[in-house]
Amino acid sequence: MKRLFLLLLLLLSCSTGCKKLLDIDSTHAVSEENFWNSHEDTRTALIGVYGLLRAAMADNNAWWMYGELRMGDFQSLQRQDLKAIVKGNLRAAYPLLQTLSNWRRFYAVINAANMFMEHVAEVRERDPKYSEQNMKVDIAQMRFMRAYTYFFLVSVWGDVPLITSSHDGQFENKARDNKETVLAFVEKELLAAAPDLPYKYSVDDPQQLGQYYNETNTRWAGVLARKLTAYAILAHVAAYQGKYVDASVYAQFVLDNYSKGGSYYVGTDELVRGTGFFHWKQDNHILGFNFDWGHVDATFSGHLEELTLAKPVVDKALPDIYVPKDTILSVFNQPLDERFSLDTLTGVPTSDRYFTSFNTQVPIFNKVKVIQDGNTSDPSFRIYSSTIIITRLENITLLQAEALAVIGQQQKAIDLLNTIRDMRRIKRYDVTVEGDLIDAIFRERRKELMGEGWRWFDLIRYNKIKQNDPAFMTLINNGGIYWPVADEVITQNPLITQNPYWQ
Amino acid sequence: MHLSVRIIITCLVLYGHNVRAQSLRKDSLPLSADSMRVEREVIYPFNSLQQLLKGNAAGVYIQEPSAEPASMSSIVLRGTAIPYISARNYYEAQPTIILDGIPLISDHPFTFDIQEFQYNHLGPASNVFAAIDPNNIASIEILKDFGQAGMYGPRAANGGVILVHTKAPVIGKRKISFNTYFGMVTRPHLYTTNAKFENDFRQVFYDKYATGTEAQTYPLYLRDSTNNAYYGPANWTDLYFKNTPVYGINAALSSGTERANFLFAAGNQRSANAADRTRADRYNAMFKINMVPLKGFTVSAMLSATRLERKRNRWLRDRFAEMQYLPDLSSPLPPNKAFYAQYLKEWDKSFDDNKTNEVNGYFSINVKISDDWQINSLSGFDYNEGLRDVFYPSTLLETVNYLSNYFGYNQRVFVNNNIQFQHQWGKHGVKLEAGENFQADFNRYNYAYAYKGPNDLIRVNLLYSDNSKDNYLSPKSFNHALMFTFLDKQRHRLLSFYGRMAYQYDHRFDFSLMMRADGSSSAQPDNWWFYSPTVTAGWQLSTTSRLHASWGRVGRLMPDDRFGEGPQYTSDLSFSNNPVRFSYNGFPGISRAYSSGYIGYGIRWPFTDQLNIGWNTSFLHDRMNIAVDVYHKMDQNMLLEVPFSAEYGYAFQFKNGMKVRNMGIDLSANAIIATKDLTWQPGINLNYNRNTLMALPGGLQQLVVADGTRLLKVGNSIDQFWVLENNGIYNRESDIPANHSTGRILNYKGIPLQAGDPRWKDQNGDGVIDDKDKVLKGHILPLISGGFTNDISWKGFTLGIDWYFTAFRKVMNTEMANHFDFINREGKIDMSAVKEITFWSKAGNYDKYPRYNPWSTVDPYRTDQDLFLENGAFLKLRTLSLNYDVTSAKWWKKKNPIHHLSVYATASNLFTLTPYTGGDPELVDYSGFDNGYALPFTKTYTIGIKMDL
Prior knowledge:
Chain A has helices at residues 2-16, 18-22, 39-58, 62-67, 80-87, 95-100, 104-126, 132-157, 179-193, 217-220, 227-240, 244-257, 268-272, 304-308, 325-331, 393-407, 410-423, 431-434, 437-448, 455-466, 470-478, 487-492; strands at 30-31, 75-76, 287-289, 321-322, 355-356, 364-365, 388-391. Chain A contains 22 helices and 7 strands.
């Protein structure tokens, strides 16, 4: 009986210790109570938002799928799904197109930014090391990230639901909001964020004194949203809406202050070098998402190189996409163009900065080629560390030229256009030879920004200005310039309707 | 005596299970319905518990995705309630195997979190149940009704539990047993093809449909008909298939007295497949003791250790999946032996070591305080670890070499304590029991891989180990930026209390009730405990016939510790082709779990209710046994990921509320038909099972899952194919119907159909072919499965003939679909473009499929249509054996110290009868797809000898 008693005691003692036995924290996930406690948490969450947007842009090389391929200069060689995008056949039954039609990843960025803004005050309360200014600059970045993401959503899908709080735990379905409403919100937010953003981080900018999260300027160079970033995106947003007066004001801010942010005009050689402009992170990236080689962050996907490079640049028989010879010759028709031109005497390319293997069936577009760490010509391993560049100084310069040309300040526009042309060593703009200025500016954008994800959006703006292509105008007027919404998005939220063009 | 097991068995008598006193007559049947005598099976070269069970027990369906030795394989007990949406579900649906009271732990599917391609678990991916030596098993019992299985609580949620009882030590005299066999797996015949065949096949499509640009991009390897690598003789099978020896050897020594006895067994088995020189070697040892130091006080212990080494297949797919990197795929492996040999030669410079070590054991104490009272304590552990070291030389992949190391282990410790009271008052028997059970699991793995080492001589990734230097832990020769390391771990604890009482009247009627409480650390803190009852009743109709019924409820454990946390933050920075991004700019970044799914508060325990009514009887003086069980199993409150709120960034949300019913019949019948010399013992076991989805979370009526390939619809089964109905081809533009009112031509999701496109049935007649026109067809799991065994004995000879069959089951012939879909499988670098060496073979009839326009953007050879859906029923002659008992011979001296000696010969996998036109219909993946990646079951012949001293 004594033994029985002992055993019962054992059972009993165990039951009182049950809580201890069953209370285990997961090692995969951080619970609500273990987060939003210190400045390390805000850094992790802030980085999370940037990382989510990088993931959204890199997923299936989305940045180029949305912006570069459709009706652009690139053709797909064998891939049927890419052919469908190039042709604008966006409902074709390929998994890639279905994934690209889903906007979920962009809304994850928005939700994460909303979460940040809702919880950051808790950290301010709990962690004395988290300063008021640090919080202010963090919030400004989050407002920027959310606004930019909405701008991109509108560019791709048109009307999208505008959600400005996380609704965490009380999710409710929302219908699509008018794109004008969304863009008004975007502009308001960008304007609100801009004053709080510094030109650079960790350099005692008045908006951000001292070391940002205890890291030096080199660690943050070009990584985060800055004042120039906000104004550059403001210029893009205004131009997208055709508000060229506003666009010129915002763009002018960038052109007046770019040196404060460490930006400069990039020479052609630097632009195309493996260790040049697209390499890692730089102050000169007005907005870009990097893949830090040194921190084991290089990837196989999420780089233009994955689509465009092939033999002899990397070990791959044929590229996924290429610019056909005829297109190259018709686009780069100016002699001495450093990017690409034919020697007028011999008829061979003067350089292989933009294109190599020009004399084969399939020229290789190798403007962007940050293979491995960028500092190698080893073709054997297709891992890349180039940065996804959203916008850069030359883009803003040409955008400003476009804006000024539209609002009638011709000479200023020509000057800006020539700034770029001088750098690329082509003749200055001459109205008698080249005709219309707007055409000349868009031609220049086509050459300068080839492969940088802008071609399709440029075509839309160009046609909105010119209104002389009836087929394209039909696309614009019927919403055909937007992507269809993925079926699974519509199924899970009955308030979302398909773009009428794709019904 | 092996006490812990005995305790369970004696309990069962009272708790609703019928263990008949076995007749001593030699010609009667030794088996009860759901237990399996393993002695009969040890002569076959089976290499896993699953193979042992296959076709041998009603309601146990074994799904082997490949015949590669010791590779993953699954058990389905009385159907499944978990829709197989991803590879993870496969792991979550497995029933618990209990070895002598030790609930065995298996791999956790959490390595899939970091795998881009989920074909295999990381590491050796071995079947941990291939580590059990059948020679050490006395019997296997399958507890399916909750009257019995309810005792195991949440471990029984997947249809019950499987008890494996190892052999008990002998008492009184020494016994030495040997069993050994040797045999050969033989190469199968395959119809091989070369580039000429492929070229002729494709030319038809090019002639009919290709436009200028399309014709220009003809694959290089088919272009040059003078290239012997592709156009030469297709004799790659000479190198791919080899006749390979297999063997097994086991010895056991046992001795002792009533007060102390022991058993020691050791064995080694080599299993092999004739394909791709795959094999597995098992080395195992087991030691078992029982001691009775005081009267009424018994101590027993067991320790068993196994090592399993595998030589795995050489699929390109699996190699690229391991590397998470694909080379240029424009030149596939050549079908010609001379060229294929060059590739294999480079392979031989690689290594791929796969080892699994498993140790388990228990310690049990039984104290009989009086005739009525006893206390039992059983504690034990199960530990298995997997190691995989891989090195692929640079010659295998575009001068990039690759190295990876995996070490993972699964560990479980448990303690069971109970106290029992048993008393008989005249006709009234009462039994009471209270118990407590604690189980702690720990899964962990370390994984590291690196690309582009300096050369092929350095095959180990060494790190600097001086922790005073700056370069501490940085790699010595590999590039730090191309080296990726991972670590993950997971803990789970389960604490249970139960009490049960049973009452028996006059050995005729019995009734029992059990109440249990289970606490799981993976449940949310306000919902840790789950309470569940079980009741049973039995009626002994006669001495040989019994009717029994039970109803019980058991909880189902959450598959992951994330569920216990509620809303949470995790790393979600990955994207396509890069599954493991945790940082941006070198800092970790975390956010809500957008891709892996929202988990809110209020997640509750899923549970299963099962009603079971059974009848077993034997008649004709025990010459015939029949057992019939009818069951109704309802899985409720199950967790399912429901797509939700893409506008808040989430892919889906985990929600309770799925309800799945499995209903069916288990039938077993054995007979013994004897004349003077000849006896025939036929045995049949059969299961009919049908699952039905009763409800989805949140009142949904249907839900598209598995990336849009499957539909869960209330009222239908969860294992159905979701397909468009194919009615041929539109040969002419004018055949394509147009909508009467709008005049719009029939289109596929907005793409107008053209000549050369499939004639899909527009089910709802809206002029658009889309997902609404897909119908649910067929079942992945068979409605009927079972086995038919025969032992025919004459004098000392026994002829064993075992059949295995399934019916009412469909298979998607994906391999065929892929072959026709060649246009979408060229010129890109992804898994769909990988062509294995088996690409150069042909199975099935190509002529019966229409010649669609393969360039069409409606993807005419898609797998979500019934064009490739085939009847997957089959009947297999699985094993054939001839056994001769030498001791029965007249010349055998009875005084010979050898008291048992038999010699035997076996043949396995002899033939399959099936309407299926592809490969083996049995070898499909979890989604019912036959994608050609299974190694075939090869014919195996063995001879062996068994001896007891």
